[in-house]
Design brief:
It comes from Asaia siamensis. This is HNH nuclease domain-containing protein. Pfam families: HNH, SRA_ScoMcrA. The protein has helices at about 15-20, 75-80, 145-150, 155-170, 175-200, 245-250, 255-270, and strands spanning about 10, 30, 35-45, 55, 60-65, 90-95, 105-120, 125-135, 220-225, 240. It is of the alpha+beta class. It folds into 2 domains: about 10-135, SRA-YDG (PUA domain-like), CATH 2.30.280.10; about 140-270, no CATH class. Strands 1, 2, 3, 4, 5, 6, 7 and 8 form an 8-stranded mixed sheet that branches. A two-stranded antiparallel sheet has the order 9-10. Helix 4 packs antiparallel against helix 5 and helix 6 packs across helix 7.
């Protein structure tokens, strides 16, 4: 889905977000049932209820999970953030600078892991809090040169698929230091499987790859379906292997919407 939000533009939470997409209108994590995304809100008032959210120098965001009193548990909104890739949900981050004011769209993020640490709860009592490390999607696109840099593994396709699905779960605890490494490893696992699934032919036009790489592999590019960039959700259901021409068409062609819709259905059928 192409979200209608522009980076660093302000929006009215109730009118511009919930009226259109649904989801809980209170709290920091909103999980609309019928929209392919999870809305995360941070900013004004967070510190007053024990939350310690912060943007790191590397662009990642440390986000304290849901739960104001006592130890946090991996349920509800927390579980939704942890499993968002597996469930095909984007993470959209919004920041509020003053009470009752607009929220600013900070971009699309990917959960790179989480850890538990001691923080005060709403009553100032120490408790174990879940802290997620969210990585901006904008910095995750694999450069074209990376596709030709090394040959995909020669493991059986079934094993490649299992590795990709396990990587999409992102279920292991991870400190902020390894969050980006986890996300990039997930991208590579899904890429390797998708290239193996394509078996040397573009999954859009069905023509053979236009050439072989220096490693002797058919050259195809991983495309994140229904994304503005190729830093989107890394899951076998959401990624296709395309020839360079179809890849550009999927992003810039006049028929890009129809092409991506058809591609989504084709990949979904294959994955079934």
């Amino acid at each position: 889905m192409l979200w209608p939000f522009e980076l660093h533009r302000s929006y009215h939470r109730r009118n511009d977000i919930h009226a259109r997409f649904g989801g809980q209108q209170q709290g920091g994590i909103s999980t609309p049932a019928d929209a392919p995304g999870i809305f995360i809100f941070t900013g004004h008032g967070a510190g007053h209820v024990g939350y310690q959210d912060v943007f790191e120098a590397d662009g990642s965001f440390r986000y304290t999970g849901q739960g104001q009193l006592g130890d946090m548990r991996m349920i509800s909104g927390n579980r939704a953030i942890r499993d968002h890739v597996q469930n095909g949900k984007d993470l959209l981050l919004f920041q509020q600078t003053k009470k009752g004011g607009p929220v600013w769209f900070e971009g699309l993020y990917v959960c790179g892991g989480w850890q538990t640490e001691q923080q005060p709860d709403m009553d100032g009592q120490p408790r174990q809090a879940i802290v997620f490390t969210l990585v901006p999607q904008s910095g995750l696109a694999i450069e074209v040169e990376d596709f030709a840099a090394e040959a995909p593994t020669d493991l059986p396709l079934a094993e490649l698929r299992e590795r990709a699905l396990q990587a999409a779960l992102a279920s292991n605890e991870a400190s902020p230091r390894v969050a980006l490494m986890n996300v990039r490893a997930r991208s590579r696992a899904v890429r390797d499987y998708v290239l193996g699934r394509a078996a040397g032919a573009c999954e859009a036009c069905r023509n053979p790859a236009p050439f072989l790489t220096a490693a002797g592999q058919p050259y195809l590019e991983a495309h994140h379906i229904h994304k503005l960039s190729d830093g989107g959700l890394d899951h076998p259901d959401s990624v296709a292997a395309l020839c360079p021409n179809c890849h550009r068409q999927a992003h810039f062609g006049a028929d890009q919407v129809a092409l991506n819709n058809a591609l989504f259905e084709r990949v979904r059928q294959v994955e079934k």
